[in-house]
Amino acid sequence: MFSLLQIELYKISRRPRTYIAFAAITAIVLIFQFAFKSDGQSYMNLMLQNVQDNFELDKTKAINGYFMCYLILNTLLVQVPILVALIAGDAISGEANMGTLRLIMSKPFSRTQLLLVKFLASFLFTFLLLIWMALLALFFSLFIFGADDMLIFRVKGEESQILQITKDDIMWRYFAAFGYATIALTVIAALGILLSVFAENSIGPIVATVCIVLFFTIVSNINVPIIDKNVKS
Amino acid sequence: MEPIIEVSNLCKNFKHFTAVENLNFSVYKGDIFGFLGQNGAGKSTTIRMLLTLIKPTSGEIKFFGKNLEQNRKEILKEIGAVIERPDLYKYLSAIDNLNLFAKMSGLKLSKNVLLEQLDLVGLADRNDSKVKTFSQGMKQRLGIAVALVHNPSLIILDEPTNGLDPQGISDIRNLILKLSKERDKTILVSSHLLSEIEIIANRMLIINKGKKIVEGSVKNLLDPSKTIIKIETGDNNSAFQLLTKSIWSESLKMTENKIHLEMDKKEIPSLVRFLTEKNTEIYLIQPLNSLEDYFLNLTKSETHV
Lengths: 233, 305
Description:
The complex is a heterodimer. Chain A is mainly alpha-helical. Chain A is 73% helix and 6% strand. In chain A, helix 1 packs across helix 8 (111-145) and helix 2 (16-48) runs parallel beside helix 8 (111-145). Chain A starts with a helix and ends with a helix. By secondary structure, chain B is an alpha/beta fold. In chain B, strand 7, helix 6 and strand 8 (186-191) form a beta-alpha-beta unit. The interface between A and B is medium-sized, with 21 and 27 residues.
């Protein structure tokens, strides 16, 4: 079983599409960091224009590593599931499309083992992707921008809110957020593998997985009482 | 002789279509067994059942005397296969593909051993090239190397010369013969070309529309002096019983209430004498085409369609 997992990870590591996910995340995060390092104050002025008459805020400290990570994670909310779907949706259907599935299935291990190994490999890929995100978005941002209290801008109903979280109270929240993201993305990976069982090319399962993610993301953002009451609860 | 594969009453139905019907055959140790049939005859379906890719509707498959369903893992360790096309990981090199499939069979082989395997199929000098740069013939040979990597005693090749140029066909043919002679492998090779099977196989089975037509040694089945004889008598059942005790009993068959048997044309007078001595009323004794003509007709009718 372990050697099968090794083989699966080796195959994932040798496919160029695997690195698309890592390259895309790296590019997005670096662009964010570069933009905010160069001209972050303009963004802060825009965000705080309604409240700066009432509050005295140190804008230079507001742009810090924690705030950058928050901003990046919010931006990547939809993109990261797509990257996971790209790998998981290809797990079985990709082998069927290449014709290697027949060869694998004639080897001395069971279908359950194969599915389990595919799932574990997709989970490990997801986990590594999140660690890479954490390293870049959180720790590299802290290295560039430093640590300080974090300001969060939210809109609740007709009200705009600013939350301030002290810097000592932030790191555990990020660990919890990455833990939650691991669970959520593992569910998406499992969904991708499930759909890939029914197809003989990768496009169908990848698109279907992404559509399901988009559907539920949109539904969860519709603020209509009937949906709040019946779907979200 | 020790049977390596024993197939009994094998059937496969897909909804309203019967792909394989009551198939029986045996492959013995050291055989190059030709599995012959036109396209759509049920060869690939049978091979898929042999490799547990699909489940039979009914019937039993035994390898090395053991039931396939109950001893799947143990049996598959002893089988190497190329199924339909030699599909491998195109983004990996030849040696990486070989190493990967060796690991799937639980083996850790050194680079030298892997290179030896590639040398056997004439690909040692291209070991580092990615499979996507290979010709169809090279992929086919690499597929055979993959099938051999765990040193199985039985090799199953599904139409291994499909899509190859004459040189490629000759290479694969020589490789199959070499594996049988030098490495003592038992080989089941399917094809829709009688000429192909005639050259490499020692025994063969012909199927058509999922049913067995004939099974036996290639030499006997393709003997030009042998002819299939159709017999009709006043009481076909009694005549059939009589013939089961005759020298022709081995090739005797009853199909749609008609007696068929295979014999040398020169033996027809003896057959007539045998039946008349037993007071059988003979209505018809008709020599049919030879097996070769029969198979060529099948292929011809397919081409016309």
